[in-house]
Prior knowledge:
22% of the residues are buried. This protein has helices at 4-12, 15-25, 68-83, 105-113, and strands at 37-40, 43-50, 53-61, 87-89, 118-119, 130-132. The protein has a six-stranded mixed β-sheet with strand order 1-2-3-4-6-5. It is an alpha+beta fold. The protein starts with a helix and ends in a 6-residue tail after the last strand. It has one domain (4-132): Aminopeptidase. Residues 1-12 have low confidence and may be disordered.
Amino acid sequence: MQSFRQFLTEVTTPSSSRAFLRAVRSHTTKPIVHPSIFQIKNVTVSLGAIGEYVGIMVLRSSTQGQGEGTQVMRLLCDLADEHGVTLGLDPVPLKRHPGQQRTTTTQLKTFYGRFGFVRNRGILPDGPSFIRLAQRVA
């Protein structure tokens, strides 16, 4: 049986965002423990439809510097373009275990910039600090 929260999410989430989230779900590599948390390769992300955009928050990456984060972001951006979905995020470094090098906010901004994320300068007034508008699929 569907919970009230799931029902409310279904009713208030644009159909393009729902289709995007279903497409992402089809690429998950491990069972999903929560409807908004996805494991793709060794990267765990939380995705949530928030009005006009889908918010992205990377929760954990067990590998760094091996290209998996790039592959996951490329997949998310391709699916967002396919479904006409705007993506949003706030680049915040993850806490690292002792001995691991911490990624800086500047490095994250550069990383996300490679995928077309730009500063949200009033495009989505109450939105995240960085957004990526859907690109036209040829």
